[in-house]
């Protein structure tokens, strides 16, 4: 059994499906976890799915993935646009890290146009709603099959 793929979610994503469905859709984070589990299992992988509102816990999850996992798919949420800690941590991570977003930050407010995470991640997928996670997983699986 290969090492699991870590899927890490940042602040407020626990509110998905309850507010702002026009931007983020009606699916809850539990719905997205179920979709990701199914997609990963179809390719012989397990996932470790987590969410935190705390920046340092996201750093801890990426560091845990680097020791115990095979790849990372991360939606850093608002920390995308602010976090040097996540940038440093992803730079230090030896695994493929794929950044995903439900919405398309470049089509939104100016402050969302900068991503610290994109400057360290292998690839970014955005604007596809929950499907961004599946496409992010597919990107990670693709990179893993190259190795
Ligand atoms: O589009 C995305 O996935 C984002 O990462 C979502 C973040 C936002 O700060 C990024 O710019 C783009 C916000 C996540 C907050 O999620 C909520 C869900 C429901 C209700 C309120 C917030």
SS content category: alpha/beta
SSE pattern: EHHEHEHEEH
Can you tell me the residue ranges where pLDDT is under 50 for at least 5 consecutive residues? Answer: none
- Put simply, the count of helices is 5
Mean pLDDT: 96
In percent terms, what proportion of residues is strand? 15-25%
Strand order of the largest sheet: 2-1-3-4-5
> Which ligands does the model contain, each kind named once?
ligand CA2
**Helicity, in percent?**
25-40%
Distance between the termini: 16 Å
According to DSSP, the number of beta strands is 5
What's the Cα radius of gyration?
A: 14 Å
The biggest beta sheet reads:
5 strands, parallel
Shape, per Cα inertia axes? globular
Short description:
The protein is built from 5 helices and 5 strands. With 147 residues, the chain is α/β, with parallel strands linked by helices.
Overview of this protein structure:
With 147 residues, the chain is an alpha/beta fold. 39% of the residues lie in helices and 16% in strands. It has helices spanning 21-24, 29-42, 55-68, 84-92, 131-146, and strands at 5-9, 47-51, 71-75, 97-101, 123-126. The chain has a 5-stranded parallel β-sheet, sandwiched between helices. Strand 3, helix 4 (84-92) and strand 4 form a beta-alpha-beta unit. The mean pLDDT is 96. The chain binds ligand CA2. Ligand CA2 binds at residues 12-13, 15-16, 19-20, 24, 75, 77-78, 80, 101-103, 105, 112.
